[in-house]
Design a protein that fits this description.
Length: 295
């Protein structure tokens, strides 16, 4: 498969492809290949402007990649290198680059990984089918988990790769990620996976507040979130994330007003939902930054 009008599309979605090709050229001198993966590929397929830094994956070991980039005086951050991942900085742009790998052993969020230059094996360790579509710098797609079929449906579906229970137990944050992606791309949930998320929902409490709140920030400002039907369906997940009960009365009216004045605020929405709770009992406040806490 190939993305049509690729050269025009990369300009429209504002993808810094020339910088990515510069990295690719360095790797190709060592017989390495480079692919785009994750959100940036979905943006290319759906013709949406990119909203986050592009993720890249290569079939070279990360230690060799580091040597290549350092030799070329490329600025990099080694955070995550033990998991086969680095961050490349190029002016205002930065790219997360990861070596293809497979999980040898998983224990919660962390996993013991092994370099394995095989695209199919690399795809198996990703969370959702729509997150495992690879694209080279010419617009050619590789789709080992059939994510295109799920993404290009009239009403896209988000579903886990492989054994859903196993994928969730690897990292319980995936419960909230499943909710976020489902709300963003569709107004419905893939019912089989949603029921398994419900089964493990109390495990959200094992996650740090910082990780929970980071996901909530992304979930609660989505337009598809602004539905009482949706709210009632995911209410327990949200309340567990903040360890706090919500009052939903009038919330949809607030959301409509925010859209009218073009001022959507995560902090305002949280404040509204917990307006009847006593401040002293809101334990999550200690995990917000000063500005958010003040609001």
């Amino acid at each position: 498969m190939k993305i049509k009008n690729f050269s025009k599309l990369i300009k429209y979605i504002e993808l810094p492809l020339s910088k990515i090709k510069k990295i690719e050229l360095m790797l190709k001198q060592h017989d390495g290949n480079l692919f785009l993966i994750g959100g940036v590929v979905r943006c290319l397929i759906l013709k949406n402007k990119i909203s986050s830094s592009p993720d890249l994956v290569t079939d070279l070991p990360i230690e060799l990649v580091v040597k290549i980039l350092k030799k070329q005086k490329i600025k990099i951050s080694l955070v995550g290198i033990e998991y086969g991942s680095i961050v490349i900085h190029d002016g205002k742009d930065f790219f997360d680059l990861t070596s293809m790998r497979k999980d040898v052993e998983t224990f919660g969020r962390k996993a013991k990984v092994k370099f394995f230059p095989n695209l199919l094996e690399d795809s198996k360790r990703r969370d959702f089918t729509i997150n495992s579509i690879y694209c080279d710098t010419k617009g050619n797609l590789k789709d080992p988990q059939h994510g295109m079929k799920d993404l290009k449906r009239g009403n896209p579906i988000v579903k886990f790769i492989g054994d859903t229970e196993k994928r969730i137990q690897e990292d319980f944050l995936r419960i909230l990620r499943f909710i976020r992606f489902s709300i963003y791309y569709s107004k419905k949930f893939y019912i089989r996976d949603f029921r398994i998320c419900e089964k493990f929902k109390k495990k959200i409490l094992t996650l740090s507040f910082e990780r929970r709140i980071d996901e909530l920030k992304k979930i609660m400002v989505l337009s598809n979130f602004e539905s009482m039907l949706m709210l009632k369906k995911i209410r327990e997940f949200l309340e567990l994330s903040l360890n706090c009960e919500f009052d939903l009365n009038g919330f949809i009216k607030l959301c409509k007003l925010e859209r009218e004045i073009n001022n959507v605020s995560f902090e305002r929405r949280i404040k509204y939902l917990i307006r009847k709770r006593k401040i002293k009992k809101l334990s999550f406040l200690n995990h917000l930054n000063k500005n958010q806490k003040k609001k």
